[in-house]
Amino acid sequence: AAGAPKPLPSSGPKSLREMPHPLATSSSEEMGPALTPSPDLLLPRSIADKDLSLPNGTPVDNSSPASSSSLLNRLQLDDDLDVETRDLFVIVDDPKKHVCTMETYITYRVTTKTTRAEFDLPEYSVRRRYQDFDWLRNKLEESQPTHLIPPLPEKFVVKGVVDRFSEEFVETRRKALDKFLKRITDHPVLSFNEHFNVFLTAKDLNAYKKQGMALLSKMGESVKYVTGGYKLRSRPLEFAAIGDYLDTFSLKLGTIDRIAQRIIKEQLEYLVELREYGPVYSTWGGLEVELSEPLEGVSACIGNCCTALEELSEDMTEDFLPVLREYILYAESMKNVLKKRDQVQAEYEAKLEAVALKREDRPKVPTDVEKCQDRVECFNADLKADMERWQNNKRQDFRQLLMGMADKNIQYYEKVCVT
Amino acid sequence: RAVESQSEGQCAPVDSLWRRYSEFELLRNYLSVTYPHIVVPPLPEKRADFVWHKLSADNMDPDFVERRRIGLENFLLRVASHPVLCQDKIFYAFLTQEGGWKEMVNETGFQLKADSRLKALNATFRVKNPDKRFTELKHYSDELQSVISHLLRVRARVADRLYGVYKVHGNYGRVFSEWSAIEKEMGDGLQSAGHHMDVYAASIDDILEEEEHYADQLKEYLFYAEALRAVCRKHELMQYDLEMAAQDLTSKKQQCEELATGTVRTFSLKGMTSKLFGQETPEQREAKIKVLEEQIQEVEEQLKSKNLEGRDFVKSAWADIERFKEQKNHDLKEALISYAVMQISMCKKGIQVWTNAKECFSKM
């Protein structure tokens, strides 16, 4: 047990979100007694001290998750984190184009503000390109295989179709990268990942990259999961359910994406006709005497409608569609984690069988594996709960956006004046 | 053939009777010929025109028949409210007399009074001095026709596209429903929102139907343009006639003078031949002069009356045109206002639906 670090902090920078997902609550309750505090848990403990200001400095994860989460509940009720309790802020902005002999690319400024002990300085500002984000994500997946790593915007773009350097594209990407980092920041475990730290702080990231496996983080990387050979007999119901859910979910999101695109297309065609419609009234107005004012008025209003519609379509394309795609990617990566979880369980079961045959005492490996599985389940549920919440709020956000825009469109219509 | 019933709305006690579209046409032709100085209200279109895809172009389609019925009713109301036309006996009979109306119309012999198209065309080209106002009016009506047709065509396309936009939103309804099935907390919200999307998609049908009324109002004035042109043509015809008569008078007078004084002002074959082959006897000349003088008197009379006719025509036509202009301005203003009101209502509905959907989402 001593050798297995527990990256499960039921303490400190755990997501300060209170809402219980049915799955989460039950599993954490189940896990309660199984989780024994590990003296090896260094980092979270110190942070726990700082943030929660426990008088005796003992790690909060001594107690069962339930009580510590209730402690946290008293601290935080809202999803919008108080500035005081949050200790890590990251922002991605200021895209810049770099032209070199070999290639042209864009870098983004990544600014970090923090009070955490892991960081030497309270503030950092570095420049990173997409490659670097990709590297980070891979590293996180490697080192935290049981966690859901947030998705990145798509790597490849069809060169002929999309302009990689267009303002729109760069801005959409910047937003997605910003969200990516923010999600990691909010994650109780991922945010403490060493690679993440380096990503945020190192002046020369490439040098660090080259060091490669030389730096092994204490958190989780010592436990490597072999993905090979083990076949899972049956997925436990709850995970099968999650798997099915994710399948249908991706499907539905895909459909919505297509519908939204179709709507935008239809709106643009409508716009084309409207653009011809308005001026005809103007022409007519030129013909008339008394009616010229009202006719001009109609023409102008139609013009306004065109503008409003244009804005609506733009906003949909820039804000609504990317979020859909992001969640589809998220679902994909979640499914991969499920598969890994299956592998783990398969290994555990196989080893268990082997043990049963040998009639030995429970060896370490299966125990580890079992603990791993527990971990996975716990996280999976936890993160799924996260995801739901995020989804909920995200949906609210961009639906409000969509409707705000419909409203705007409509308000322009209301300005139609005739006499 | 569509058959419509219309009822007498005025003081006469009776009635309703049945009239076919062709009878309406006959009535209108009669009125146009009998009152050429009046801008006669137009009939609604015979065939469905300017349709957008959902509307059927079928003449038997119930919606089309209904709209045509309204158009015919409108035509009768226009005639009935016209200070001159409403007094016409044939019109009255149209409304009240079931049988034998057609014969009655034909008995008036109005067809004989009708000007041939060829004659009218000829006059239009050859006339030298038409009243400027009529020339302007003719240009105006040409342009009006052109701009309204264009407008109606584009409007039909706009309606088509708008229909598409709304209908695709209906797909959201279905997906949300399917999606809500796999969600726990988000389920209800999604389901209700989906319902609102369905409502949104369905609402376009009524909206566009209402817009058809607006289109019909515009169409009426599209057809009115033709009526305006008819009045202009009549003026041109009369003016041409007048000019021809004046010309005739001038040439006869000249001839007379030549014969009387013996001088040949203008070259004429007769003059030449008579010079070559000997002059006429004084008696012959006298006879000719007498004939010419008679003719001249006739033509002078004709000219006088034509002049009078022409002036009367211009006066009464212009009065009716002024009346028409006011009617047009008033009607079109109202049409535009009601169009705007329609748009506003459409938007308010949109706001309502999306606000409802937003509420559903917020409860997710």
Automatic annotation (TrEMBL), chain A:
Keywords: Protein transport, Transport. Gene3D superfamilies: Arfaptin homology (AH) domain/BAR domain, Phox-like domain. GO terms for biological process: autophagy of mitochondrion; endocytic recycling; piecemeal microautophagy of the nucleus; protein transport; reticulophagy. GO terms for cellular component: early endosome; phagophore assembly site. Residues 86-207 form the PX domain. One of its GO terms (molecular function) is phosphatidylinositol binding. Residues 1-10 have a biased composition (Pro residues). Pfam families: PX. Residues 1-70 are annotated as: Disordered. Belongs to the sorting nexin family. This is Sorting nexin-30. It comes from Eulacestoma nigropectus (wattled ploughbill). The gene is Snx30.
Automatic annotation (TrEMBL), chain B:
GO terms for cellular component: early endosome membrane; plasma membrane; SNARE complex. One of its GO terms (biological process) is protein transport. Keywords: Coiled coil, Protein transport, Transport. One of its GO terms (molecular function) is phosphatidylinositol-3-phosphate binding. The keyword Coiled coil applies. Residues 282-309 form a coiled coil. Residues 1-101 form the PX domain. The keyword Nucleotide-binding does not apply. Belongs to the sorting nexin family. This is SNX4 protein. It comes from Eulacestoma nigropectus.
